[in-house]
Design goal:
Number of helices: 13
Strand content: 5-15%
Low-confidence stretches: 1-28
Number of strands: 3
Structural class: alpha+beta
Distance between the termini: 94 Å
Largest sheet: 3 strands, antiparallel
Strand order of the largest sheet: 1-2-3
Length: 320
Amino acid sequence: MATNLGKRSSKTQEETSDSHKHGGKNKHEVIHWHDRGVAARALHLSRRVEKPSGRVTYIVVLEGLYRFSVQELSTRGTYYTARITPLDMTKVEMDQVEQDPDFIALSRQFKATAMELILEQKQKSGGRTKVLLDTVPVHKLANIFVASFEISFEEQLSIMDFVDVKVRLSKVTELVDRHLQSIRVSEKITQKVEGQLSKSEKEFLLRQQMRAIKEELGDNDDEEDDVAALERKMQDARMPANIWKHAKKELRRLKKMQPQQPGYNSSRVYLELFADLSWQKVSDEQELDLKAANERLDIDHYGLVKVKQWIIEYLAVRKL
């Protein structure tokens, strides 16, 4: 918590200084400062260039030292300075609080709730978090947990304002418990919904997720465009109702498949054949010459006597 708030405060002061440096654009802008803050020490500064924009950003890692109250705020050149009063307890005062039965009970409750949260989340870093629970003082653990949650900046400030360790620990325990209950409710809803989904619905959801992932990665899925074009071509072919029913069933199966799957290409070729057939076009009837047809079959195909015989019989019936 302290480190996170320190980062925010540092960022605000840097932006304020920059506004004064660049021609005083915001010179007369009223800045509303919070009357409490966190003193911090800079541990690391890194510079990063974003591609392809070339934008330069800086990341500062801060270590929170102690809370303070602002008594007086003034400017020194282009920077703000303040006269502050430390708010955190001294070591002697903290030792006395740690002997308080109420504080001991709160500490146990906080650790138990935090452990439930770790087990519920099943995080890979759970082992390291358990070590923190066993080694780091509870009042510091509360700050660490709050900083790791996605809560509003105003809520973080309100927790920072609690100087009384017992009050702060009680509020953080409530926050951890609220986060834990939120995860449990979310999991129950997910399990309930998944239990009601049919196999086809699950496949549809997975395909939607894969499509969203591909869009995030910037992958162009030309295969989906090809399938859509094939579907339009099949619709334009104006197949008979019974044939169209079968073709739609096969098309749905194709949409569920990935191009790498066995059988995808054969199913695709099968549907393309359906789309290419002239379902509504009738060729002109021509005079059938059985003798010429028999000669053409003998020239083009060796053997296959039975097959040739069936073809000639079929043509003879058509000629009647």
